UniProtKB/TrEMBL annotation:
The protein's name in its UniProt record: Peptidoglycan-associated lipoprotein
Gene name for this UniProt entry: pal
Family: Belongs to the Pal lipoprotein family.
Matching Pfam families: OmpA (PF00691)
Higher taxonomy: Bacteria, Pseudomonadati, Thermodesulfobacteriota, Desulfovibrionia, Desulfovibrionales
Principal localisation: membrane
Localization per Swiss-Prot or TrEMBL: Cell outer membrane
Organism: Desulfobaculum xiamenense
GO cellular component: cell outer membrane
């Protein structure tokens, strides 16, 4: 019984394979385009492609600017410094230019203080940047805040230089 079933299945598979393999390709009866039109289309395609490449390069540069420019905070503070406000203004302009982007604001702290305190301080730092961006016209729906406290130091050193690098907000684009 099994043998008959196997033979029938193999035969069906062969019929299917041969049936689809013999299908003829339909030929369309379109006239060839005139040479003037094809030359125009070629130059139009090239200019569109060049424009698309330029837009892509601009978008990559904008994304790099948003994610690489961090803002820094003074010890035990979450208020925005003047230099941080300028960085955030530039980010706001880019976010308005690319409204489909969503920005994650990450708050960070140095190693001094308890873990709980630093998580709360990192949250307040990220929230300060978030609120400033909203005031500048960035929709709150395109922003998200997270605090890492002291968990992800930018500099693993144990001195004022390292600590000042760790008191920061970082920015990531997310989908």
């Amino acid at each position: 019984m099994r043998m008959k079933l196997l033979v029938v299945m193999v035969m069906m598979a062969l019929v299917l394979a041969l049936g689809t393999g013999c299908a003829k390709k339909q030929m369309s009866a379109e006239p060839a385009p005139a040479t003037d039109q094809s030359a125009n289309a070629g130059s139009l395609d090239a200019s569109e492609q060049a424009l698309a490449e330029a837009n892509q390069k601009a978008m990559v540069a904008a994304e790099k600017e948003i994610t690489q420019n961090r803002i820094y905070f003074d010890f035990d503070k979450f208020d925005l410094r003047a230099d941080s406000k300028e960085v955030l203004k530039a980010k706001a302009e880019l976010l308005k230019k690319y409204p489909t982007w969503k920005l994650l604001v990450e708050g960070h702290c140095d190693e001094r203080g308890t873990e709980e305190y630093n998580l709360a301080l990192g949250e307040r730092r990220a929230r300060a940047a978030y609120e400033f961006l909203v005031v500048l016209g960035v929709p709150s729906s395109s922003l998200k805040v997270v605090s890492f406290g002291e968990e992800r130091p930018a500099d693993a050193g144990h001195n004022e230089t390292a600590w000042s690098m760790n008191r920061r907000d970082e920015f990531k684009i997310f989908k």
